[in-house]
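ugh ok so i messed up the first submission bc i forgot one of the chains. this is the corrected input, ALL of the components this time, i swear. 310 residues overall. if the numbers dont match what u have on ur side tell me asap before i send this to the collaborators (the ones from the other lab, u know who)
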Amino acid sequence: MSAAEASHLDDALSALLDGELSAEEEALARTHLAACAACAGELEGLRSVRSVVRGLPPEPPPFGFLDRLSRPHHPTGRRRRRRVGLAALAATATASFGVLLLSSPADAPVSPQMVRLVEAHATSASGDPISQLAPVGVPITFRR
Amino acid sequence: MADGGVPTWESVARDHGRFIYNVAFRLTGNHDDAQDLVQEVLVRVRKGLATFTPGSLEGWLARITTNAFLDEVRRRHRRPVDLLPDEPDRVVPPTRGADVVHEEENLSAGVQAALRELPPDFRAVVVMCDVVGMSYVEIGEALDVPVGTVRSRIHRGRAQLRKSLG
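and heres the new structure output, hopefully the right one now
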């Protein structure tokens, strides 16, 4: 058994498929292949994988992507759009918060609460030294 | 392409955008990362056009694309939190619904998913060899590695693809 037959071909199999072996290496490889079923089988498996990858159809870019790229001043248009999106989101959030701040004082029902507090105090405070002040504490100006 | 044989940046984007995109998609395995990669490539193309030597433009573009890809992989490796592409749902290419998926598309999706499982260094040489059609010497020069390393990585990459594709 020669040295070529003794050891399997391993990466020389891929190189053989790709035409990357020297004439001498290729002759040795073919001699080995004729006598080694394992390497011959592996060669066919690799040939099949290689042809499948080579046969992959070109993957088309998403619609409009290349048009955006070809604009001379927007080589990174997509990233810019992302930032603009974030800025818009932040602006919307700020605006919403602002609307809340502006709207709440105008609509807050402060006076009725005051009336209820005074009435509650007046009814619960009898018998207490402070209750003497209670009639004064229910002024007519706090009617509902 | 301009008269002197040196292309303009816009002509590269217009005439070779599809080529770059395909290589980028085969390397990254998903459309989001492929788009980011193409943009990075065009930034590098703009910087590198001054030193471009008229010759195989697609070989030059594939070299830039693959190196930009490997740089990004290394950058993400230094920041493990960014390793999104290893999530299983990003390994499988987008599907369009079982009723409209053709057998051919299934095959492509399966091969792409198997490619995506290869370590980036193996994936890079397999794409350069079998998608772009570069020689071992060209790949070695592009990646700055010896031809023997290219040969070994291509073989190990294909052997792993063979296992994945069963």
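quick check: The CA atoms of residues 83 and 118 of chain A lie 54 Å apart. that seems consistent at least. Chain A has a mean pLDDT of 71.
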